[in-house]
Structure formats: C-alpha cells, structure tokens
Write a structure and sequence with these properties.
Length: 178
C-alpha cells in the first residue's frame, strides 16, 4: 500500500477529479459547489477554478460547517469549534456538488446532507472526494473519487494537507495518534 502522495500527485489527482466532474455536468448549466469545512472547502475551490478553465461559467460556491449536525458532537468536548456556513447562492432546483477531502464511515457526509436541507432542495446532489478509504457505516458512496485507498489498516488515518493551511500539499497514510 502506498502511504505518501506529494504535491505533483495531488495536482494530478485533483485534475483527474475535475475531469470526471466536468464530464457529468454541462458547462452552460448552473452548478453549485459546496465544500465541507475545512479541507473540503479548499478542494472545492480548486475544483471550481479547474472547472472554470474548462468553460464552466455559472458556478455558485458555498462552504458548509457540519459541527452541529454530527452524530458524535457529544464527543467533541465542551466547546467544539464552529465556523460559519456560507451558502449565499440559491441551491433550490440546481445541481449541487458536495466536496470533502476523505470519505470513510459516511457519517460526515450524512451530517452535510442534513445541513444542506436547511438551505434548500437541490435538483441533485453529487459527492466528490479526494480520497475514499472504504469502511462505510452508512450507505453513502462518492460519485467522483480521486484516490481509492481501500486497504488502509483500521488503526491508520488518511491525513490530507493543503498548502493553504498546512503549507504543503500531500496525503499521508499514518497510524492514528493516541
């Protein structure tokens, strides 16, 4: 199993992900792209820029904080960090691309779907993730996957780092910290 992906790997994977998304939507139609805080937000912005270069001109952007929708909120400690959700576009009756960095159990995506319903009813919601590590606990599947990392040991995690907040682009599969 490969455990390290560098900046050039990340650029290639995101470009391939953008190509998959571009093939599923018409460039002239409205497409709302909503990233789940924090790294899903960054990936969503990068995908948006790549889609614009591919001729998509009607892209609405949003950022979703799922903190209060999580089913493990009681385990987050006495003061979970909550940042604002910013969805200032009309999501009703328009296709929406939900973006996150890693999908594992599916619980974060379920929380995001619950949160999105407070803002409207998209015509369709598709999910794009940089990495899919398998291990679902809920029947949720990504429509667009950059890397399928299905053989990650249960005691390991996938750490996605983006230069915007981590000073470099990389994916590292490493043991969980105690």
């Amino acid at each position: 199993m490969r455990t390290q992906y560098d900046q050039s790997d990340i650029e290639r994977v995101i470009d391939q992900l953008a190509e998959k998304v571009a093939g599923a939507f018409a460039p002239g139609q409205t497409l709302n792209i909503v990233g789940i805080r924090t790294r899903g937000e960054i990936l969503a912005e990068r995908l948006t820029q790549m889609l614009r270069r591919r001729g998509f001109t009607r892209i609405g952007r949003g950022v979703l904080d799922i903190t209060f929708y999580r089913d493990d909120l009681s385990q987050a400690g006495p003061k979970p960090v909550v940042r604002p959700t910013q969805i200032e576009v009309d999501i009703d009756a328009c296709p929406l691309l939900l973006v996150d960095d890693v999908v594992f159990t599916g619980r974060s995506i379920r929380a995001a779907l619950d949160a999105l319903m407070d803002f409207g009813r998209p015509s369709v919601i598709r999910l794009a993730v940089l990495a899919d590590r398998g291990g679902r606990e809920l029947p949720i599947q990504a429509d667009f996957v950059g890397l399928a990392l299905k053989d990650v040991p249960a005691d390991h995690r996938i750490n996605v780092r983006f230069r915007e907040i981590d000073e470099k682009d990389e994916i590292v599969v490493e043991p969980r910290q105690p």
